[in-house]
Predict the structure.
Amino acid sequence: MAEQAPGYQLPEVGKISPEVFEQVIKPRLGRHRPEVLVGPQHGVDVGIIDIGGGRVMAVTTDPFFIVPQYGWERAAWFAVHILASDAATSGLPPTYFVVDLNLPRSITSEGLEALWHAVDATCKEIGMAIVTGHTARYDGTDYPMVGGAMVMAVGERDRYVTPTMARVGDAVIVTKGAAIEATGLFGVTFPDRIAAAYGQEIARQAEETFYQMSVVKDAMTAVEVGVRDAGVTAMHDATEGGVWGGLYEIAVASGVGMVVEQNAIVVSPAARAVCDLFGMNPYAAISEGTLIITCRPEKAGAVLARLEDAGIAATQVGEITPPEEGIRLVRDGREEPLEHPRVDPFWDAFARALAEEAE
């Protein structure tokens, strides 16, 4: 008897699709534990565990992504902030860090020391304790995927949020703008190509975007206003799939509709230049550093004011609507469905650029 073909396709590169998650992952989640308040869901960055005493722990995991060409300090800062950013979208402060380093044999003792000093400094900056881990060199491992890590955030049970909590009437706010990560990574990897096409100033701005690739400060600032009925209802960082993917995932996770005004989403001159040069849609390109926030409409002004006071650019770009109204984009005054990009354009664009550089 021939095997039945699966009702999904694996992506060529990057995160699995909602269909793969729903058909393969979600039905098989181990033993049920009542203290798991929020388990795995597509588009939700954290799990939430009740740890007793009115407190919860938000948990997240990701690859530990190290690119030595960025310099150890910059590479470690980025690797740690990717994880801390996901944890911070819970509204709880990142507290504990766990890392598994499966390092290539090419790393030297000097490289390991520089990497670890930078990991330690970044964790101290965020306020996280490193509580356990594993460190080794192995055959068959290579940069940038050199292991995995976890961040845990601890706080009061009534203080967390997830992307499932957006409510009809909420305002939708986006920090920093589109294609932050794509701009920062291209900026530090191909500064000469960007400068040759657009000048040194744009190249400098693109490179400086690297240190915007975190939403820890964004999230911790936004929730100062309050959470749930008192303010922020959901947060999600716009990683793979960019701003379009992040907006879509919040709407689907919360079971609501959404209307978004494209012209309200900032695309910086550096982001526009990098995306044009390397052939990416800025709204669909990977954007770690962009935080999508939903909040009660009467609190939108307060959230925007807190972010501005903290030096974080942000704009209100839309609102949450009833589910029957769908997920909609207003582009130049015309309304159309807002669809998930499915595959992030960054990966192919980055691979092409590296290949061209090697020629």
About this structure: DSSP finds eleven helices and 13 strands in the chain. The chain has a mean pLDDT of 95.
